[in-house]
Amino acid sequence: MKKTYKMEDLDCANCAAKMENAIKKIEGVNDASVSFMMQKLTLDVAEDSLEEVLKKAKKICKKIEPDCRILG
Amino acid sequence: MTHKQKKMLLRIMIALAFYGIALVLPVEGWQRTAVFLLPYAIVGWDVLWKAVRNIVKGQVFDENFLMSLATVGAFVLGEYPEAVAVILFYQIGEFFQNYAVARSRKSIAALMDIRPDYANIEKDGTLLQVSPEEVGIGDVIVVKAGERIPLDGVILEGTSAVDTSALTGESLPTDVKSGDTLMSGTINLSGILRVKVTKEFGESTVAKILELVENAGNKKAKTENFITRFSRYYTPIVVISAVALAVIPPLLFHGLWSDWVHRALIFLVISCPCALVISIPLSFFGGIGGASKQGILVKGGNYLEALSKAEIVVFDKTGTLTKGVFQVTAIHPEMISEDELLEIGALAENYSSHPISLSLRNAYAKKPEETRIKNVEEISGYGVKCIIDGKKVLVGNSKLMESAHIPWRDCSHFGTIVHIAVEQEYAGHIVISDAVKDDAAKTIQDLKAKGVKKTVMLTGDRKAVGENIAERLGIDLVKTELLPGDKVAAVEELLGEVSEKGKLLFLGDGINDAPVLIVADIGIAMGGLGSDAAVEAADVVLMDDAPSKIVTAMGISQKTMRIVKQNIIFALGVKFAILFLGALGLANMWEAVFADVGVSVIAILNAMRCLHFKN
Hints:
The structure holds two protein chains of two kinds.
Chain A: E1 2-8, H1 13-24, E2 29-35, E3 40-45, H2 50-64, E4 69-70
Antiparallel strand pairs in A: 1-3, 1-4, 2-3
Helix pairs in contact in A: 1-2
Chain B: H1 3-24, H2 29-56, H3 63-76, H4 80-111, E1 119-123, E2 126-130, E3 140-143, E4 153-157, E5 160-163, H5 165-168, E6 174-176, E7 181-182, E8 187-188, E9 193-197, H6 205-215, H7 222-253, H8 257-269, H9 274-293, E10 296-298, H10 301-307, E11 310-316, E12 322-333, H11 338-348, H12 355-364, E13 373-379, E14 383-388, E15 391-396, H13 398-403, E16 416-422, E17 425-436, H14 440-449, E18 454-458, H15 463-473, E19 477-479, H16 484-495, E20 503-508, H17 514-519, E21 522-525, H18 532-537, E22 540-542, H19 549-584, H20 589-607
Parallel strand pairs in B: 11-18, 11-20, 18-19, 20-21, 21-22
Antiparallel strand pairs in B: 1-2, 1-3, 3-9, 4-7, 4-9, 5-6, 5-8, 10-22, 12-17, 13-14, 14-15, 15-16, 16-17
């Protein structure tokens, strides 16, 4: 299942790339994409693990760019 | 500028002023340290703060940390002006990047500013403004002059001109009248229109376009992925080299510590691949935005990239290269004028519903005076016999002429030929055929000029018809009398001919060709968002019917790729050159700052050119 989340204050393109790499490695993620230009995260995950994945993704995001937030 | 940006700009200005003062103040010792520390602190405190915060979290190759390390190192070495300059220009670069990215985001959002804000719905004789989402199928809405058409529908009442440029890139307005369909997102220019809604907002043209463009960023081009992978290795390698450079020569070869540490600091300043990481996605983003302005919806960076490598372009015939409607393409009268011949034909066929009759009447364009026509008799398979202005008229095929013993003349033109005789005398013939689109021949030529090696046309039509059109357009290969399934097989066969790097494009009108759109490397559906299956299957959607848009799409793609390559070569070239010179001790901090910030700024400015494309 594909889901898109808006991101706020994603100010650094390099960080977006780092986040994308890290989020792709979360268990249960088929594919992920962080678009610096659109300020968006797209997750392709199995439906039942979505909540778990999103939590981890938010953590990764905080770690790489503390000001940046995933909305939703 | 946002509040955040304004604050940053102010900090930069103040720091610049203090930096200028520090450069000219004739002070020495701790006082000199202090006057340089002041601008450093003003402009760089947040970098230092982020560096500390991130290193605690284990982000070693964080750019804030590396910048802090480089500048603090320079301070320790006593290179005050350089240290402040590095952090100052780093912040100016960051500021500019934010500004540029925000601006291009905004200009692309403006391109895509087709979302209607409201719909006027008629209730008990008064007009109510409601959100487009609340309007249902079958509701009647009123669109006033100057308003954006909020939902797809059919005009019940009113005539107007509609500006479709936001959707199709076509600058000439289209005239509409009652009975015509309207696309949401276009603008009603003149009259008041009463429109019956045919689709809910979520299904409407405008909602679909927005969805397509917003999702385009998710499919990244190969080059983008390459840059992401590259940057994962670039920073660690440069930083490790910096450490080696600082430590190994002094320990093993009795080098001067301060000299080698200085060289290492130069490495740290250049360690961010920012120029590439920002400018490459920005280029693709701009290219996709620029394309949508021209009515070309590209579903992802990967497709934009692939378009530039088109080697074989396969066309569907009917509706793609030809208009798909029968039209009078030639009038060859004997003794009388062209207009007279057409008039006789149109009058005789006035009561027939045959597509050929329809095209004659369309070409005639005037309203036929029915009083002139008498005793109409349709002879199935032959034509029409009637009396016009008291004269006996025969309009039909060659069999009709032969049955009446009238000698007729054959025609070199291709298509269906309608012969006309008046009072047993041959009056000439009118040729009717599926007309080739005006820009079809030029499209084929231009594709060749853009580097396409082979053009192919597939059609279910008869061999003679297909070959004739292909020859006229200058198409290399034509396959005729194909069933829909055969088209897939034909494209699969052609895919075998494409070289490893080349791509096969298929352009169809979206009717019955969804399977072919999927098989092709890049499936392009034209004619807007008519068929859901085609829009779903296609990688690129052309909002209008002009095949020449494929040339524009390739042009945008090639321009984008050119800019991307320029940026990669330029950024890496400068960075490696300064790294090399820095290792040899030939580069200073100033050059390092240029290699980092200067290159970023230039690459971003270059990338922003992708947004604009002129034919």
